[in-house]
Structures are given as C-alpha cells and as structure tokens.
Design goal:
Blueprint lengths: L3 H11 L5 E4 L6 H12 L6 E5 L1 E3 L8 E3 L5 H14 L8 E7 L2 E8 L21 E4 L2 E4 L5 H4 L21 H14 L10 H7 L3 E4 L2 E4 L1 H7 L2 H7 L5 E5 L14 E5 L3 H13 L5 E3 L8 E3 L3 H14 L8 E5 L3 E7 L19 H9 L9 H11 L6 E5 L4 E7 L6 H7 L9 H13 L2 E2 H8 L3 H13 L3 E4 L6 E4 L26 E4 L2 E4 L11 H9 L3 H10 L6 H14 L4 H8 L3 H15 L2 E3 L12 E3 L3
Length: 629
C-alpha cells in the first residue's frame, strides 16, 4: 500500500488521477462511499486510494494539495470500515492506515477492485443501476444501463432485442446481396452463403423465430432494414453529415451550416457516408523529385472509414439521437451517442468491449471492421505515416457521447515551422510543438488529449504542459481534475479577459428608473436593480434585446425563483444571439455558478440550449444559444 506522502506528491505532479481521491474527511459522507463503490467496481483499475484530511489549496495559482488533517482519525476509521461492511449489497473491506504528515493525521484507505463475479457493487437501498458507481477518469459516475453490460455479460445485448412491428418487407434485399458479396470475398466457402434469406437473418442474430412467425431484432433492422422502415421504427437513428463554414460551431448565425441526413441499412450506409465526406475533402498528390509514382496526400481514406465504422457499430442505439459528422474548415469530428465501454487511457490497446456484438460480428465477417481493438491503433499509425496530427478521442460519460477528432492538418508543415520559429528561444520537444499546433487549430488542450497526441504517460504529459505554461505559451485554466490549457500571451495578442464577479443582491438602482432604447422608453420595476461592475454594462446588454424580452427580464426581478419563468426568459434571450454565462449573469442578477448549475446545465441536458463551441465546453469564449428546430 502506497504511503500518503507518495500519493500527495503524485497528485501535485499530475493534477488528476483515476486511482487517488483526496477529501476533507470531517465525516464519512455519501461522497466518500460513492468513491469506495467506484473503485471497487471499475474494471481493470485495480482499486484506488482515498485520502481523508487532504484538500486542494484554493489559494494556489497551480493545482496543489495541502494536508489539513482529520480531528478524530480513529472515529473516521471505524465509521468507514463499519459503513463499507453494511451499506452495500456485499461487504467491502478497505485497507486503512493512519499516517502523520507535518503533525497532522491523514487517513489513507485503499479500496481493492472486486472480483468479476462480485460486481457490480451498489448501495443496497438504491438498487441497480442507480446505486452503482464507476470510476471514470478522476470522478465517480453513476452507472447507466450500458455500464451494466460490463458486469452482466450473460444478458442479451440491446441489438439482440426484438423490435415491435417489424416485418419481412422491412428488409432491404440489396443489403442482403451486399452482405453475401462482401462475405464471399472474405471467405467464398462460408457455410452461411448457402442459406436462404430467412435462415441467414436468423444465423446472424438479426431475426428470431417464434412459432410460425419471424421476429426481427434491432440488429436486423439496423444492418439490413430499408430507409423507410428505419424512419418508421427508429426515426432518430440516422447519420447527419454537417458542413460548417469556418472552424467554430455556427460562429456566424447568418452563415448557417448545410447538412445531409442519411439513414438506411448500415451495411450500405457506411459507403454512402464515406463517399459524401471523401468527395468534400481537399485532394492532393505528391511527386518526389526523381520518382515517377505520385502518392496522395491528405486524410487517409482508411482513417475516415475506421472512424465511421467505429461510430456505427459502437454507438448506443438506446439513445434517440443521430450520429453527427461535422466537417469544419480544419477538422472532422465524428460524434456518436454512447461513451466508450473501454477506459479512455486504454483506447488503442488490444481487446474490444462491444456494446452491439451482433452488429460488430457482421461488420467483422464482411471485413468492414475488426473486433480486436486495433482500429484506433491503425488510425494513429496511418495518420503518423501521412505526417498528420494524430487523431484524438473523447469519451464523455456524463453526456453519454464519444467523439473522434481528425485534424485536416499536416504536422509541422512549412506554415507551422514558420510559426513555431517565433518560439526558437524555447526548448520544445516534438510533442510540445505538436500540442501548440493543436491548440492553434482547436483552441484548447487538456492532459488526456496531450497523452493521445504524444503517447506519453500522465506524469510526462503534466510535466510538458506545465513547461509550456511556464514559458507563457499556454494558459492554465481550471483546477485539479478540470485543468485545461488555452493559448498563452506569447501566442495570442488578445488581452486576457478578466474574471467577472457577480455580487448577490448588492446592485445599484438606476436613479431615473428608465432605460432608453430607440424610440421607446421602458419603465424599470422597483424590484429591478443593476448588478455588476458598471451600470452601463447592464444597460448596454439590456438595450441589445428586443423590447418584449427587455420587459420579461425586468419583470423577473432579482429574487424570482420560478424555474419555468426563468428558463423561458433565458431561452428568449439566447434566441437573439449567443450569450456568455457572464452576460446572462449580469442580465439576470444570478451568481455565475448558480446560474450554470441550476439553469443552464438542465437546459443543455434537455437539448433546448446549445453550446456555441460544443467540442470544448470549458472554452473561454463559450456561449449559449437557443436550439431552434
């Protein structure tokens, strides 16, 4: 068992870790027990340590942890052992020791990972899936039904479930012909090539016979179903190819994106989606001096195909949401519903955790995909061979989404080299140069993304990023687990925006209680008082809104607690143009954190409010815009 001193040093070096959790520890609360549950459940983690009496130093500019100690370590130790033995569906026996650091007591508890047959561990009173937790990165996440697949592998997968109202006429004959064609190329002697269509569908897990009736599974309608059948039975399960001008999500509301909606048999859809994107990509050829054979340059076709296949066979079909392929000026992002069942730091390692095993098997048998976990490794290798920035992958458990990001950018092109020459006085390695190019193109980077770009471990990545920060090439944002980096002073000439603090209910009333707008004067209610640094700031924001929305804002007052009313006003405001959280805070007179947690986040989850930069939720220029269908 590692000592508390070593664990604290590791926290200070890495900013984040999935195997260590530091908490105040004044009592054994639900948060501590959730971490116990997460450490015990997480597959292949090997367990983790909980440090009680250690907290982040909020006054430190950079992430640092300090020892505050626990007042009654014996009681804390007894409470933790007692609750671990009684509150879960099976007893948990943590290994606990009390250590003294600088004269203060720290409780160091190691929670071992349970054996597969004992999982999932869950709170007895809450049941499944609500009462079970997993360790996702440095946080504890409540399990979803998809998570239970990891623990109950004997149960039927979703793609094997019967779908109501499906019939034989919903099957696309061209899709069955395509399967036979592709399968014969892989193995011309495959036994299933001699089956009838009905026998083939049953053999592939796409249909089940119930008496004299043939029932079709989700796999059958998804892989072989017609577009009309999918529209009728699965209306939201489609692929959207979205072409966005520029490098940001709808940066100019007057210059809207174009989109192609695609649905139909997955075995036919993969080629259609590939062609739509490939035809839209810039093409080029390179003919080295003295050679007669030209080679193509640009995004390798197999990388794009692997990304599309990954989205189609690993997405969660329980979520009624399309796959989005977003083509920006400088990159392609493929977003599919369903976080990765494989831990983010193991992406590219051998082995595959399959959400849809029947669909994956069909793609594997036709050589459209592999099932050994080598797809991501292949993408990285091909991008490296093409001298392009490696692909990055983001698995978001909270939003239940997986994103593949492919930069259409050659690493260290002549333009990049000229740009990097401005920093010749800085001792940069190739990975740091690559990170700077990535930040220039995308706008931000975090430790996980740096690890994917460089192949470094968490310690090396933290060291490299901090070095870039110390050279003023990057700015550090957030604390601890939420640390990310944006362009520093030496990269951008923009003045750093100052943080804006909204004080609760300590505004200043407008003396004449009038706000002037063109040809109109709006009365200000008595309960409306300006918040913020300057009266002019709020007046200017208010005047930028249409008259009817101004009246709604002022009618709210500063103490209104009607959620539906406040939600409605936020959505009306964000229809006009994207607003930052600080602007909304100024207009509505609510704390930034309270506004985000109580109003903006629920509206985002409902899908009625959208980020302007969805791929970087913590981007310093992030704003909110009402989603208009």
């Amino acid at each position: 068992m590692e000592s508390a001193v070593d664990l604290i040093n590791l926290l200070n070096l890495t900013d984040e870790t999935n195997r260590i959790e530091a908490k105040r520890g004044s009592s054994v609360d639900k948060s501590i027990l959730q971490t116990v549950c997460a450490f015990a459940n997480e597959p292949n983690l090997g367990g983790g340590n909980i440090l009680l009496g250690v907290v982040p130093d909020k006054m430190s500019l950079f992430p640092q942890y300090e020892v505050i100690g626990v007042e009654n370590p014996d009681k804390i130790q007894l409470d933790l052992a007692s609750q671990c033995a009684s509150i879960f569906n099976i007893p948990v026996r943590p290994e606990i020791q009390i250590e003294q650091i600088n004269g203060k007591n720290v409780v160091n508890a190691f929670i071992a990972e349970l054996q597969p047959a004992q999982k999932p561990l869950f709170f007895s009173n809450d049941g499944l899936p609500k009462g079970a937790f997993r360790r996702i990165g440095p946080s504890d996440q409540r399990c979803s039904e998809d998570d239970l697949i990891l623990f109950y592998s004997h149960t039927d997968s979703f793609d094997a479930t019967i779908i109501k109202d499906a019939q034989l006429s919903d099957i696309d004959e061209n899709a069955l012909k395509q399967y036979r064609n592709l399968r014969s190329k892989v193995n011309p002697y495959a036994e299933e090539l001699n089956y009838s269509d009905e026998e083939l569908l049953i053999a592939l897990g796409c249909a089940k016979r119930s008496g004299n009736e043939l029932k079709f599974t989700y796999a059958g309608i998804l892989v072989f179903g017609t577009a009309a059948a999918q529209r009728r039975l699965l209306p939201a399960l489609r692929v959207d190819y979205i072409r966005v001008p520029g490098n940001e999500w709808v940066a100019d509301p007057d210059d809207r994106f174009t989109t192609i909606d695609m649905r139909g048999s997955l075995i036919l859809l993969i080629q259609r989606a590939y062609n739509a994107i490939s035809d839209d990509l810039p093409k080029g050829f390179l003919l080295p001096e003295g050679q007669i054979q030209a080679s193509s340059i640009g995004l390798p076709g197999r990388v794009l195909r692997e990304g599309l296949v990954n989205a189609l066979i690993h997405r969660s079909f329980k979520v009624n949401q399309p796959i989005q392929i977003i083509r920006y000026g400088n990159r392609i992002e493929i977003k599919n519903p369903g976080y990765s069942l494989k831990p983010e730091d193991q992406l590219g390692d051998p082995g595959s955790n399959q959400r849809n095993p029947f669909i994956a098997a069909i793609f594997h048998e036709t050589n459209l995909a592999e099932t050994k976990g080598s797809g991501i490794r292949t993408m990285r290798r091909l991008m490296h061979q093409a001298s392009m920035v490696p692909p990055t992958f983001e698995s978001n458990h909270n939003e239940n989404q997986f994103t593949i990001r492919l930069l259409l950018h050659h690493f260290l092109s002549e333009e990049d080299i000229a740009w990097l020459n401005e920093f010749n006085d800085c001792p940069l390695n190739d990975h740091q140069k690559q990170a700077l190019v990535f930040v220039k193109e995308v706008g931000a980077i975090d430790n996980a993304t740096y690890r994917q770009l460089s192949g470094s471990d968490i310690l090396k990545s933290s060291t490299d990023l901090r070095a870039l920060r110390d050279l003023n090439l990057l700015n550090s944002n957030g604390k601890g687990k939420l640390t990310y980096y944006t362009p520093g002073k030496r990269i951008t000439t923009r003045d750093k925006k100052e943080e804006f603090l909204v004080l609760p209910d300590k505004g200043r009333s407008i003396p004449d209680k009038k706000v002037a707008i063109p040809d109109k004067v709006v009365d200000i209610p008595d309960n409306y008082a300006l918040q913020g640094n300057e009266d002019n700031e709020e007046v200017e924001l208010l005047n930028s809104l249409p008259l009817n929305i101004q009246q709604q804002v002022m009618a709210l007052g500063r103490r209104s607690s009607e959620r539906e009313e406040i939600d409605k006003v936020i959505l009306e405001i964000c229809k006009v143009r994207p607003f930052t959280v600080k602007e909304l805070s100024t207009l509505l007179g609510r704390h930034v954190k309270h506004l985000q947690a109580s109003y903006l986040k629920p509206l985002l989850v409902k899908g009625v409010l959208k980020y302007t930069i969805p791929d970087m939720p913590k981007h310093p220029d992030q704003a909110y815009k009402t989603f208009v269908k």
